[in-house]
Amino acid sequence: MAYNTIPPAPGNANPQGPVAVRIKAPVFKDCSTDVPGLRVAVETNENNGPWQISLQYGKPSTARLSIPAGGFVLKTSGLLSCTATAAPDAVATAQGHWEEGSGSALTMERAQIPVKIEGSFFCPTSVTTATITARYAVHNTTDPDDAITVDPA
What we know:
Layout: E1 19-23, E2 38-44, E3 51-56, E4 62-67, E5 72-78, E6 82-86, E7 92-99, E8 105-119, E9 129-137
Antiparallel strand pairs: 1-3, 2-5, 3-4, 4-7, 5-6, 6-8, 7-8, 8-9
């Protein structure tokens, strides 16, 4: 399956549910915190499965971001050494909504996903849920003037 590509017909429609699009694992660079002396780094991977966006028509249309098990690892260092693994045991799906038009995007507002935090004494290891607020812009690279829409099948 190709990355970042909407499947051609008939795979781009599913009357029974969402259409899934496999995406490359996101890359996070130059991450920072507001805490002096605390550094943060994020690694993503596809070792346990693909990252995907699933789109489904509705009023409003829905969009989901699926993160493979262990596919997102955040590490802090310096003042505090902690490791937070999103989707620690299985695929996690963050619920969002789909913005249509020339600025098509998957938008998530405080979407919840499971997380496991490990590390030194002051790491919040009792926290088991994290929230994601993000906007993933989606562009039609084949025809930039043609918007990506989610319509009834």
